[in-house]
Specification:
By secondary structure, the chain is α/β, with parallel strands linked by helices. It has one domain (about 5-120, about 185-255): 3-Layer(aba) Sandwich (Rossmann fold), CATH 3.40.50.880. It is built from eight helices and eleven strands.
């Protein structure tokens, strides 16, 4: 694929504007940190950023039609994301747009719709524990350039059971210092679209400044990018005319001879 990958980043952007500890780590917002390392990648083209405050104006049909991969981070206000925007996101994923869901984005409306469940229950603890990620898909495009295991010095703890559908492929399992384990990286396909979830990335820790996490996200964007930026698929649901002429006789189809 020779064309550049157009990326749109949604970040709630509430912690960065209300909590000084978070602002110190992400002065330009989590979306700014994500944009900062993605735009250095020669494969990446246009990067748009949306926040909860402007998501209705930025996440339009036109903008998402021009988006190859949507990256999503949310936490406190999933319920405030407009359903009309969620509808556009879900349809675009089904038609081929890639979708990268980060950390608490597991509870977002678009991810819930695409997974077919709105519960996504899990164990959690905010203790700043060490996390060790195990790369269990060493030949997958998302894990290229990584060792078999690496550490995140401090992160929010998530633990099983995690209420998600069975992944198409499990990419990472994370062990936390307090003893929990978690399916921290997983992929699915919904319609024509590829989806990747990555657990790591609590707002009070500089996880998105870590080179390994940056590499995972950049790799995931390239993996999830559709071959063609097809907003209206060549085939799809709806009332369509037959490709072959036929007549129906006694319960069987009989071709029409010309």
């Amino acid at each position: 694929m020779n064309r550049k990958i157009n990326v749109t980043i949604y970040n709630e952007n509430l912690h960065e504007t209300t909590v000084e500890e978070v602002r110190a780590i992400y002065p330009n917002g989590i979306h700014g940190a994500l944009k900062g390392f993605l735009e250095k990648d020669s494969a990446i083209g246009t990067i748009r950023c949306a926040t909860l405050a402007d998501h209705q104006q930025v996440l339009t049909q036109e903008a998402l039609d021009d988006t190859d991969v949507l990256v999503w981070w949310g936490h406190m206000c999933h319920h405030k994301v407009e359903d009309a925007v969620v509808d556009i996101v879900v349809k675009r994923v089904l038609n081929g747009m890639g979708f990268i869901v980060l950390h608490s984005g597991h509870a977002s409306k678009p991810f819930g719709r695409l997974m077919g469940t709105e519960t996504h229950l899990l164990r959690w603890r905010e203790a700043g524990e060490k996390a060790r990620l195990w790369n269990i898909a060493t030949n997958h495009p998302i894990t290229q350039g990584l060792e078999q295991t690496f550490m995140v010095p401090h992160d929010e703890t998530y633990g099983e059971p995690f209420g998600i559908p069975e992944p198409d492929q499990l990419i990472f399992i994370t062990w936390f210092q307090g003893g929990e384990v978690f399916r921290s990286g997983a992929t699915w396909q919904r319609g024509e679209g590829k989806i990747f979830y990555l657990q790591n990335g609590h707002e009070t820790f500089p996880v998105y400044h870590q080179k390994e996490i940056q590499l995972v996200i950049a790799n995931a964007v390239k993996w999830a990018c559709p071959v063609q930026r097809a907003c209206t698929p060549n085939r799809g649901p709806g009332n369509v005319a037959p490709l072959e002429q036929y007549t129906l006789e006694e319960g069987s189809f009989t071709p029409i001879t010309k």
